[in-house]
Amino acid sequence: MNRQDFFMGGLALMLALLAIGSAVHNRDAYYRLPKIRWIDERWGRRVARYVYAVAGLVLLALGVLILSGWSFLGQ
Predict the structure, then answer these.
(1) CB 52 within 8 A of CB 22
(2) Is the dihedral of CA 69, 73, 74, 75 positive or negative?
(3) Disulfide engineering: 12 pairs with which of 21, 45, 57, 63, CB 3.0-4.6 Å?
(4) Which CA distances in Å does 70 have to 10, 54, 62, 64, 75?
């Protein structure tokens, strides 16, 4: 494993914690991004929180996979 793998895995984990934290804490500052604001206006805050939570879980899984050495290409 090289430094790039540690960096990308760590970055994915940090973004995952931010996304999950924004879904849990429900502060307005997290919902000012254009895509999330659009979801919030169209379907409501509850669905926007679910979107943040799912994105966080996907990033969490990605970070763990990267740090464990998994590769899509199998190298």
Answers:
(1) yes
(2) negative
(3) 63
(4) 14, 21, 10, 9, 9
Closest CA to 60 of 1, 30, 6, 16: 16
Q: What is the mean pLDDT of residues 20-42?
A: 91
**Do residues 12 and 62 make contact, with C-beta atoms less than 8 angstroms apart?**
yes
Q: What is the pTM of this model?
A: 0.84
Contact present, 21 and 71 (Cβ < 8 Å): no
Q: Which residues of 26-35 are buried (b: 16+ CB within 10 A; e: fewer)?
A: eeeebbeeee
